[in-house]
Hints:
Blueprint: H1 4-41, H2 48-54, E1 60-69, H3 72-76, E2 83-104, E3 109-120, E4 132-136, H4 138-146, H5 152-163, E5 170-174, H6 175-181, H7 186-191, E6 221-225, E7 237-240, E8 271-276, E9 281-293, E10 296-302, E11 335-336, E12 346-349, E13 364-365, E14 376-379, E15 386-400, E16 415-428, H8 431-474, H9 482-491
Family: Belongs to the CD36 family.
GO molecular function, one term: scavenger receptor activity
Main location: membrane
Amino acid sequence: MVSSGLKSGLFMGFGAGLVVVGAVMVVYWPPLFMSQLQRMMVLSPTSMSFEIWRETPIPMYLECFMFNISNVDDILAGKNVSLQVTQMGPYVFRETHSKVNLSWNDNSTITYYNQRFWYYEPELSNGSLSDEITTINPIIATVAYTMRNERMIIKIPVDVFLRLYHSNMFLTANVSSWLFDGIDDPVLDIASQFPNLPMEIPYDKFGWFYERNGSVEFDGSFIMSTGAADFSQLGNIQKWRYSTRTPFRGECGEVKGSTGELWAPEMGQPEVYIFASDICTYMILAKDSDVTIEGIDGVQYAANDSVFDNGHRYPHTACYCDEVRDSSCLPPGALNVSVCRFGAPAFVSMPHFLHADPYYPSKIDGLDPKEEYKFRLSLEMFTGMPLSVAAQLQINLLVRHVSGISLNNQLPDPDTLVPMFWFRQEMQTTPEYAAMARYALRLRYWVPYALYALSVIGVALLIVGVTVLIRRLLKSPETTPILEESSSQENQ
């Protein structure tokens, strides 16, 4: 039978040990958790995040919505009508991403190229790739925009040349040709034979994604922080096409932000930066709302009216226009990306001109902007895990009347930003990856509670041990009180 003294010692020893371990671990658990999270997330050939980043395992889809101009006959008849468009689609493609040509650098960065493939998903689409779309001929609009400041003696022969091959400024082709297959145009074939033209002709066909499917070089090279030197910089792009600058001036031309696939833990900051190589700049998404996806709480960041503002409401965006603001600096809500699209009069906006100046939609019939068209990103704050992405942008062509090039001047309004198509690049975390995040969050939240419980148990054991000790002091081993035993010995 265990003596009361041994019981007391065991209870107090174990109790003190549990209290000390629990208290110490409660203090040190947060940094221990962050240290373990860093080991998992810092990009290295052996880290857990590497394979997920290199080959995106979560299903991604590209949805393309085309705008068909439905009143071409009225426009060509010279009627003073607004441009009428009808949205067609979506035409859905499954998208895969692979990081290739990897080079690990000594300054805790990695150089890579992003190779993307798209596979048409007819069962998810509304329509067929053979659907015919009629809209503005981008070749004519680009030639006119490029020649807008040339002398009349140059512009008139160009107009004659264009009319040799085109009777009007509209073009009809199927969806497949508009997107990936490309459209043949004799103007491109002939112009490519003259190397000294004032415009660059990069392709033999026109298509919004022509020669992009499976291309390694199209998106350009990226140099990204691995997070090893500074964990807060994990996933941030340091250089694009081996430069820290893009064609835009001032801070608008800085290369910064994440491409959206890899994030350091985001502790609730009011905004995040996404670098988008397609538009040669970054986007700032503001904190929008709290969300719950697959049982995981997160924060949604979304585009607001500061995106594509170009200095009208937000002074820091003025660098998206030339320093001397002229007629080329359009109202807010559309970003001029001609400098990174071979001089084409391409402008990017939110779908259906959401949050854009009323100047744009007032010229177009058939638009229906909705808040759900916002560019959105949802993150789990403590792991930086992307929960969902809805990257939504609209491509528009500026059709502005140019004296001397009459073929380009057939729209009733002399200054129209024509919506061509918009796309939604969508991804949402799967139950499998959500389970991984929940496991990490349980460790973060439940372990401290377990340590507190451990400390409480330790205190309880200490109390039991002290109680046993007091009882032992008050009683002899033969259950005779100690004071009574002492008095008996004195009488003898």
